[in-house]
Design goal:
Blueprint: E1 2-4, H1 7-19, E2 24-29, H2 35-47, E3 50-55, H3 65-70, H4 75-84, E4 89-91, H5 95-98, H6 117-120, H7 124-139, E5 143-147, H8 151-163, E6 169-173, H9 193-214, H10 219-231, E7 236-245, E8 261-269, E9 272-279
Parallel strand pairs: 1-4, 2-3, 2-5, 3-4, 5-6
Antiparallel strand pairs: 7-8, 8-9
Helix pairs in contact: 7-8, 9-10
């Protein structure tokens, strides 16, 4: 595996690969890799001649300084994992390489970044869009692969690609879960074993809500049921549970208002904030 920390040599290497007709798949990450990330690498490898993973904890997308400080950084272990699964290139820059000067750029995605994650993490998606734009320009991939767990992020990046005419195909890869159903996340490293058990309430709530919605229970009733489930638990607090149109993230009062509704949830387990989602229609789950 080729490892780069600087933009210029990475660009030169990838330009040479392109001259030989190789297609490039990009998997952007913030490190602290788990099986979910590795599944993205696997899909990228199956669809690209050259798979590029990036590891960069992007300060622009954190609106909580303690969250940024506590975000797990495990570069040595991550590098070993990427080598084991056959990743071709790792780009792991320092912050000063990506942001040589303090940036003043920002993005506004209308309603896409004002609901759910955008509502509770103002500025988050502007920071995501900024670093993803930079990575797209640096790597110039044919396809970029993202996990379904961050569906709102995927919707925002889809809008970014469309609006800025990036010649890049995007692919969302289904969420990788533990056998109990917990969505794999780098933040799970910060959970105690007891908290991991408690965190299953996110997946269980989504599963129950999906069953209720498919049987005709109104959205507002399902929301109250989810809230009631969380209110009975210690050490957990629900931030939001919403049903949205997966295409444009319009919040729904009735699942029949959208062709492909998605159920989205965020909650704190102790001090760790977790998110998850589930498509209402089984072929997308």
């Amino acid at each position: 595996m080729q490892i780069f920390h600087k933009i210029a040599p990475l660009r030169a290497f990838l330009a040479e690969q392109r001259r030989h007709g190789k297609t490039i798949g990009l998997v952007p990450t913030m490190g602290a890799l788990h099986e979910g990330h590795l599944s993205l690498i696997s899909v990228a490898r199956s669809q690209s001649d050259l798979t590029v993973a990036t590891i960069f904890v992007n300060p622009a997308q954190f609106n909580n300084s303690s969250d940024l400080k506590n975000y797990p950084r495990t570069l040595e272990k991550d590098t070993e994992l990427l080598e084991k699964v056959g990743c071709d290139v790792l780009f792991a820059p320092e912050t000063s390489e990506i942001y040589p000067v303090e940036t003043t750029l920002s993005f506004d995605f209308g309603t896409l970044d004002k609901v759910m994650e955008g509502k509770f993490r103002p500025g988050h998606f502007s920071g995501v869009a900024l670093v993803v734009s930079k990575l797209f320009h640096i790597v110039e991939p044919d396809t970029a692969f993202f996990g379904q767990k961050d569906w709102q992020q995927f919707a925002v990046i889809s809008r970014l690609v469309s609006e800025l005419n990036f010649n890049i195909k995007l692919q969302s890869v289904p969420t990788f879960r533990s056998k109990e159903g917990l969505a794999l996340s780098s933040r799970n490293m910060r959970l105690t074993p007891a908290q991991r058990e408690t965190a299953l309430v996110l997946y269980q709530s989504l599963t129950e809500a999906k069953t209720q919605l498919l049987s005709g229970v109104p959205v507002d009733v399902v929301q109250r049921n989810v809230e009631a489930r969380f209110s009975g638990l210690e050490g957990v607090s629900l931030e939001y549970f919403e049903v949205a149109d997966s295409a444009n993230l319009t919040l729904l009062n009735n699942v029949k208002e959208a062709a492909s509704p998605i159920l989205c949830i965020a909650a704190f387990v102790g001090e760790v904030r977790l998110i998850d989602n589930m498509f209402l229609l089984s072929q997308h789950s």
